[in-house]
Amino acid sequence: MGSLASWKRDHPTARDLKGIYRRLFSRFGRQHWWPGDGPFEVMIGAILTQNTAWSNAAKAIHSLKQGRFLEPVALHTVALKRLARLIRSSGYFNQKAERLKTFVRYFLDRYGGNVQGMRRVPWRILRKELLTLKGIGPETADSILLYALEKPVFVVDAYTRRVLARHSFISWQASYEEIQELFMERLFARTPYFSEYHALFVAVGKEFCRTRPRCHACPLQTMGRLRLEPDIKPVRSSNDT
Ligand code: SF4
Hints:
This protein is about 60% helix and about 0% strand. The longest helix is centred in the middle third of the chain and has 19 residues, at about 95-110. By secondary structure, the protein is mainly alpha-helical. The radius of gyration is 19 Å and the shape is globular. Helix 3 packs across helix 4 and helix 3 (about 40-50) runs antiparallel to helix 10. Bound molecules: iron/sulfur cluster. Iron/sulfur cluster binds near residues 163, 167, 204, 218 and 221.
């Protein structure tokens, strides 16, 4: 693992970051993120997918839709216990029901449940507001900003950190904000680009950069200086899983 000093020395240039994007895009193509029927559903999905696979969050969204609860006032008024039952498939459902309630109260109180009104506010202000809400951390806040409100904000997740750290571009100890700044300072901030880029990190993380990475087949294998964690052995071939 590198120290913060070695991270400063190794951090990626704009060229490196563009190169990662190009390779991922040519391998995986357009990802069509975020799966969701409108911005409000995307906001709710960003909370439901915390600490769980998207497929579990999608089931919870489906049951909210079936019960006609996927709109701000209905979510605000439904009983907490009933809401928790409806979103059971997403895991941590009691906690997430409270988080949904907190978010929807804020959305109604501050913006009258109006996405367009929220979109008019600068993203730095919205980010600060979202981060004051219980249960909304940087990744959830930035997912809401990027995918629901179309703000040019880079979303960092565990795959982003893993890929960059394994290629010696960052220290494993780099903070969320330090990693985010790399992208936001070095790349031209455009919503479609950041949106696609994050989705591509998820694609490479799921297919190749797993706990036991499949570097031999990965489009990023020649980027930077590959330095896997000392106790991690890569998968050697497609038969070795
Ligand atoms: S699988 Fe290997 S080459 Fe691909 S991103 Fe992960 S560490 Fe890099």
